[in-house]
Design a protein that fits this description.
- Chain A: It comes from Sporomusa termitida.
- Chain A: It holds the Pfam family Fer4_11.
- The complex is a heterodimer of chains A (about 180) and B (about 450).
- By secondary structure, chain A is of the alpha+beta class.
- In chain A, about 25% of the residues lie in helices and about 25% in strands.
- The model of chain A has no long low-confidence stretch (mean pLDDT about 95).
- By secondary structure, chain B is α/β, with parallel strands linked by helices.
- Among the domains of chain B are: about 1-90, Alpha-Beta Plaits (2-Layer Sandwich), CATH 3.30.70; about 145-170 and about 200-325 and about 385-450, 3-Layer(aba) Sandwich (Rossmann fold), CATH 3.40.50.
- Chain B has 16 helices and twelve strands.
- In chain B, a hairpin with a 2-residue loop joins strand 10 and strand 11 (about 345-355).
- The mean pLDDT of chain B is about 95.
- The chains are: A alpha+beta (about 180), B alpha/beta (about 450).
- The interface of A and B includes residues 22 and 34 of A.
Amino acid sequence: MEKLSHFVVGDGTKCIGCKACEVACHASHSVNGITAGNIDTPVFPKLFVTRVEEVTVPVQCHHCEDAPCAQACLEKAIYFAGDKVLIDTDKCKACKDCLMACPFGAVELVSQFVNGEEVIQENLKKPRMYANKCDLCDTRKQGPICVEVCPKQALRLVDPHKEKKEKNRKAVATIVGMFKK
Amino acid sequence: MQYTVEIDQELCTGCHRCIDVCPVGAIGGPAGMAADINYDKCCFCGQCVQICSAYQEYKSETSAPRETKMKDRGLLASVREPLFAAHNMGHAQKVWEAINNPNVVTMVQCAPAVRVGLAEDFGVASGELVAGKMITALRKLGFDRVYDTNFTADLTIMEEGSELIKRIQENGVLPMFTSCCPAWVKYVEQEHFELHENLSTCKSPQQMAGALFKTYGAQVDKLEPKKIVSVSVMPCTAKKFEASRPEMNASGSQDVDLVLTTRELANLIKHAGIDFKSLKPSQPDSVLGTYTGAGHIFGVTGGVMEAALRTGYELITGNPLDDINILDVRHSQGVKRATLQVGDLAVKTVVVAGLENAAPIIDEIKNGTADFHFVEVMACPQGCISGGGQPKVLLETERKQVYASRMASMYKHDEELPLRKSHDNPEITKVYKDFLGKPLGHKSHELLHTHYCRRG
């Protein structure tokens, strides 16, 4: 069986909505420096802390096995690299099909910045945009930075296989408990 | 009164990490709702500013656009970093106007900790010492005189060390508290006013410098004091409050007119288009710019204590310390006690790092069990290197290492300096000879000492 993709999931009972994950995500992908003074573009995180009533939780890409975003992309800009769904931003035409296809709203269109300046398309007089989403910190050895920085440990990297096995064990443990009664 | 720290109710997500980090319980709010500051309790330390990660999203539909918020916060229009909910009021725009005003003379001073933080906002690794580049940048910005708070840190030691000795010898109020941290001073004034006589009457180095700029500095440079705009660059948000205190006008007008944080100085340098990394180092102007290692270590927890002991020991015994590095007062993780034998006297010291750790010390004094002579309190967790105005560390997971680097850099600079005791600073000798007279003398009392007022 194909190895299922990992993905990061937030726990709404722990998340406090501080956005430390969003800031860290942007810092890790787009900032050369350790302090806020090095941020020279708008913050474009690849996960989105979302509030519904009293619950906050970050929403991000599940790296779906059938990747509807990739299926929808006519430019073939979205692809699998190992078990991660990634976006080739150079190929992306910002058509928004991936945004529409994603069931989580995990894809956002953002403006391209080079050396702190927004790239404006000459003919259109509009910023050049591209699709942006969680890449599980593809080039970071330690894995997703959002998991690491969350002050409440509200984020975790899910291994679907392990998750399933754990649930199997819990189900059996419940049955054992029932018999013990 | 000038509220120097604010929480933007519209940007705050109600995570309440600022409530957790506030050392004086000044921030509150219902769960999940925007936090609010009680200014009767707030000591303006700015730790909330450092920890806040709730930012204004790109093109978010807030009632005020980014440009309006920036103006309200006193930020320069060129600032690109995100706007966070917890922030301090800025004065870079006013400083920019002053340095571009041909009718005024601008004098600037920089606190010790600024030079180990500033470069971080230019993409440099944490803790890199940029004392010389900082001076060059200030000159390029157009400041007419570039002096140094480190000089008045040395001066503070002369005054405060003399005051401590006097209190011990004449059975004055003990223990004596350091008074260079404005957040700590405000806290004593509003929560424990009955202990205000324990506070040293010495002004902070910032305010001593401010008073000297417009008196001695004006005299040396043959300037009209009213033409001087006195600017300080501090790692601290509470220094803005301190400078605005009405009694801080020994020179005849407000001694320090404008206070920038380290972050604001970085913004100003970028605004002027100065390539900071490629600057050649230079030296501050004499007479108010020469400093020793003792003045420099004011920027770390235990630094004021160590600097005072280096001088106090020698003043009392007439002999230098065997080892000038007084490790027993360094690296406080909350409360650190030490005893130093000074001649016949065992001087007992306490170093408090982080205002939340002051409570047990205050209790001991109040219940009569305190047996110590001198207490240093810094509101911020590792002293000024971790101040609310320092470059804002993006990842909480890196904060500890960043502070450790800044601290190591401070001590390294101290060790590299040719003079490491405040009383060895030749410019200090000169300022007493030419202008002040002697420590605790009439002129010193007039310009360098202050009084406290009940708050709250």
